[in-house]
Amino acid sequence: MGKLIVKPDILKRSLLKGAIALSILLSVYFVILILVSGWNFTWVQFTQFWYYIVTLALGFGVQFTLYSYLKDVVKNPSTGQVLATTGATSTAAMISCCAHYLTNVLPILGVTGIITFIGQYQVQFFWVGLFFNLLGILYIGNKVLKVSERS
Fold this sequence. Notes:
By secondary structure, the protein is mainly alpha-helical. It starts with 7 loop residues before the first helix and ends with a helix. The radius of gyration is 18 Å and the shape is elongated. It has one domain. It contains five helices and no strands. 81% of the residues lie in helices and 0% in strands. Residues 96-112 have low confidence and may be disordered.
């Protein structure tokens, strides 16, 4: 294993971008829940599942930081598809905690069964999101390590 070379100016920019991505993901979570079910329900759900929600958002922020660093170092965003997939999974897992309340907004008969299914397995959706977050971090992190050893 060679010596790791970190580019501090790129790292600072990447950390800022990751923090912004984390903030946006949490904002999307809160906005959607507030629009669907109101502030009180949103707060209850967040306090009940905060450890999943914050961990998912942190995982996405870490992935975004790593991806941004890799992109700026290599100038080749080949791992963007992984970032988009795991980011979407994180968002979907976080939103799943309130999806069963969409029946108030979407009274379509077929949607009720899907919403009930999502609500019934929301914790499992959180775990799936966390798993994909971990895979994304490991994948992009491995790419960053390989690039940093060659630089």
